[in-house]
Design a protein that fits this description.
With 518 residues, the protein is mainly alpha-helical. The protein is 71% helix and 2% strand.
């Protein structure tokens, strides 16, 4: 499949109307401000820029849209180092306070909070200026944040660590995270799930590698220099990838794709009346036509419920990312090296979840994927206290596989889900707002976890007692249950309905075969 030359316009946008909807003004001043901030203003390219972007490294290599995959992976790889932060918790507390005060995990919550703020604000700027400038800015801020963190560790000033990694790195992460997602969604209108999966899977891979590098690097050069070296590595990788990423030229379309044709016929009827059972029928979703303004999308019931669903699915994984190393060493009595291995394996599952679920969702539907994800979260949290009280390390370890995979999968599936429901013209604004809401909830939940955790420690309970984690696990269980219930109220897309019909027909044919078998 090849991308056609740069001179015909894909007006169908994967079956969703791409004409600008009539602007609907809201009487709500907040909604009007959001609408004005996210007005569609695409990047404007000159003829010389369009010609230049046909090539890489001068005029040596012709650009191909598939080259965006490794570039996006490289950027997300660096961003994913955020989820290896738990390895630094004890070393940072010990370095600054000479004991483990459990202050360092809060830096993680501050970072994801600033990442959310950056995501919701920078979306329009990224659309206007393109992923290259956005990635360069994000990489520079990420590097500066690491330098400020190193200075704070050298001077033993915790507020500088909060400012450097929590503030500056968090802002850089928000810009860098959105850039490849936006670019790949534009380059791959024919394979939304695949594009979203590859645009986010590097995030999980980053925590795999970085979590194994941090301890040896700290032992070799010390804690402050570790942040300097890692910052330089991230700057080099992200800057290189930034010069590869770009948006499609005007009048871009994909040649040879199987873009679905929108039809008024009921998707379930079109399958049920078929005389053959073929899995290929559900390979490409028949998208619903959308001509929805941003205000309509923001105020829609589906979007509000999707926020609840999304927060319910990520809460456990987000909290776990900042505490996993401590749980492994404190509750299960493992060494820091073993804890780093667990964090690394969890990063691998984050990577697998982001990529696999996003691709599978092209076949089975986005809502169905989220139903499976939330079920895994509910079951794992329901068994959490049993596993910690009985010191059942391997069941706990395996349950973390499912939790981390489904946590990562939510970020891989949600961009395509939003596009299916509200159209591609609203995806940038809605995804940025959703990231902000989920990060804000992550900060609130993280601080709640910390307050409960510290209050239990202050009451005399040692950190090795599972109760300090079990108490928090139960309110996280409630969050997951709310998300699991919420998803049932989201209207299914055509693809979800088609998969339901396929499953129904599959069991119908099996039953018919058994009845007719002599």
């Amino acid at each position: 499949m090849q991308a056609k030359g740069m001179n015909t316009l894909d007006t169908t946008s994967n079956g969703i109307t791409s004409s600008n909807p009539e602007v609907i003004k809201s009487s709500n001043c907040i909604l009007r401000a959001i609408q004005n901030h996210y007005q569609i203003s695409p990047e404007i390219k000159s003829e010389a820029q369009i010609e230049q972007e046909k090539w890489l490294f001068g005029s040596c290599v012709r650009f191909n849209r598939w080259i965006c995959f490794p570039a996006a992976f490289m950027i997300q790889f660096c961003c994913g180092s955020l989820f290896a932060w738990s390895i630094f918790n004890k070393p940072i507390d010990t370095s600054i306070y000479e004991e483990n005060t459990y202050t360092a995990p809060i830096v993680f919550y501050v970072a994801i909070g600033f990442q959310g703020i950056s995501s919701v604000i920078s979306g329009p700027w990224i659309e206007r200026h393109g992923p290259r400038q956005a990635c360069l800015l994000g990489a520079f801020m990420f590097f500066v944040g690491h330098l400020v963190t190193a200075l704070g560790l050298y001077l033993k000033l915790m507020w500088l660590v909060f400012l450097g990694f929590g503030g500056v790195c968090g802002l850089g992460l928000g810009i860098s995270y959105l850039s490849p997602i936006s670019a790949l969604q534009k380059w791959f209108p024919d394979q939304r799930g695949l594009g979203a999966g590859f645009a986010t899977c590097g995030f999980g891979a980053g925590s795999i590698v970085i979590s194994k590098v941090q301890i040896p690097l700290m032992d070799a050069v010390g804690l402050p220099l570790t942040f300097v070296i890692l910052g330089l590595v991230y700057l080099t990788l992200m800057t290189t990838a930034a010069f590869i990423l770009r948006t499609p030229p005007p009048n871009y379309e994909v040649v040879g794709s199987s873009l679905p044709v929108t039809t008024t016929e009921s998707p379930s009827k079109s399958i049920t009346n078929s005389t053959e059972l073929r899995f290929e029928e559900i390979k490409h979703p028949v998208e619903e036509k959308r001509n929805m303004s941003l205000i309509e999308a923001l105020t829609s019931t589906d979007f509000k419920i999707m926020m609840v669903m999304f927060i319910g699915n990520i809460s456990y994984g987000l909290i776990l990312a900042s505490r996993l190393s401590n749980i492994i060493t404190d509750v299960f009595g493992k060494t820091p090296e073993e804890a780093a291995t667990v964090v690394s394996v969890n990063g691998a599952l984050n990577f697998v979840g982001r990529l696999s679920f996003s691709i599978i969702s092209d076949y089975v539907g986005r809502k169905n994927c989220f139903l499976v994800m939330l079920t895994c979260q509910v079951v794992s949290l329901g068994c959490f206290s049993t596993m910690t009280n009985t010191n059942a390390f391997w069941p706990f370890f395996i349950s973390m596989w499912f939790v981390t995979a489904t946590y990562g999968a939510s970020f891989g599936v949600i961009p395509a889900f939003l596009t299916d429901k509200f159209g591609p013209e609203n995806i940038g604004a809605l995804n940025g707002i959703l990231m902000f809401v989920c990060r804000a909830s992550g900060v609130i939940e993280g601080l709640t976890f910390t307050c409960i955790f510290n209050s239990l420690l202050d009451s005399g309970i040692p950190p090795t007692d599972p109760i300090v984690y079990n108490v928090n696990a139960w309110w996280l269980f409630g969050c997951a249950c709310v998300g699991w219930i919420a998803i049932s109220f989201i209207k299914p897309t055509n693809q979800d309905i088609k998969f339901y019909s396929f499953v129904k027909r599959f069991f119908y044919y099996r039953q018919t075969f058994k009845v007719s078998d002599p």
